[in-house]
Amino acid sequence: MSLFAAYSSKIKNTLQPKSKKSTFWLGLIIALLAAIFASTINVVGKALVDPSYGYVEDAVHPLNLAILLGLISGLFFTPFARGKKSPKKFGKKTLFFVLMLGVLDVSAITTNFFGLNHTTAINATILINTELLFTVIIAFTIFRERIQKKETFPLGLIAAGSLVLPILIDISNNGTFVSGFVFGDVLIIIAALFFALDISLARYVSNIVPATRISQISAFAGVPFAMLLMLIFQIPFDFPLEQMPAIMYMGIFVSGLSYFFFVIALRLIGAIRTVLIYSTTTVFGIVFSGLFLGEQITELNIFSVIVILAGIYLLRKKFAKLET
């Protein structure tokens, strides 16, 4: 039995004699921890790739960051994947899809961090919610899932809060559509598309391969792809050692534990409650950007988040289905 399965089984057995109330509160806490860890990706990422914030003298190149995160995440998931289906038993098509997940991971991470060079962590935190829109569109166009008429309004709310409002705010503040900030916004949206493709493909593959094995192999598979890009664009592999603790945090807590806690919460309190609690990543991300990066939180930022959360709440059942 893998460590992941053993730990999950231990939690389940421990909770059986306790009340449903105790199970709910434990699941709520674990889901909140998953949201808190996941919400720091753009906060820590901004501090690493943008020296103007004063946390680092030299920026870490996004491709260097992708390689290190892939290695750390892959090593993190290795104990959990032990005893799971061996890659030797994968069909060629399945193995190709799992390897493609690594390519999509690297594409999403590097594009997201390139975007952070040009926009704020607050904007990135809001814009990355367009991933939800792309995920629904992919489910509709590729997986042939129906979108009901009553779901169009909540989707419109998410589009308005995560896409329209942030870009209009940047255009209003900078006076032009081609400003650096708006360019950064576009890169974050492209990253969200890559994340949505990654999630959608993982959803398909997870019917064949255990999720922990997918996470392990895809993390390692992204490393050679990132190295190939570095060779093509002649980017040296270099990063200051003093930045390693922050990179380790991202690899273990953001990429690893946030996923681990999300899965545990699914088992304790169900998909809908977990997805709703996990959606607070946007709230935590904005708060942490203000506290640790000193970014200004405006009334329009808050309004964008409220609109997004309203849309997620109204579509909670669909997102619960897509997340699981």
- Mind telling me the C-alpha Rg? 19 Å
Mean pLDDT equals: 87
What share of residues is helical? over 70%
Unreliable stretches: 1-17
So how many helices? 15
| Proportion of strand residues | under 5%
Annotation keywords:
single chain, 324 residues, mainly alpha, 15 helices, 77% helix, globular, disordered N terminus
Q: Can you offer a commentary on this structure?
A:
This protein has 324 residues and is an all-alpha fold. The chain has one domain (3-323). The chain has helices spanning 3-15, 20-39, 41-49, 62-81, 92-116, 121-127, 130-141, 149-174, 180-205, 211-232, 244-269, 271-278, 281-293, 299-314, 316-323. α2 (20-39) runs antiparallel to α11 (244-269) and α4 (62-81) packs across α11 (244-269). Mean pLDDT is 87; it is low at 1-17.
How are the SSEs ordered, and which strands pair?
Elements: H1 3-15, H2 20-39, H3 41-49, H4 62-81, H5 92-116, H6 121-127, H7 130-141, H8 149-174, H9 180-205, H10 211-232, H11 244-269, H12 271-278, H13 281-293, H14 299-314, H15 316-323
Helix pairs in contact: 2-11, 2-12, 2-13, 3-5, 3-6, 3-11, 3-13, 4-5, 4-10, 4-11, 5-9, 5-10, 6-13, 7-9, 8-9, 8-14, 11-12, 12-15
Brief synopsis:
The protein has 324 residues and is mostly helical.
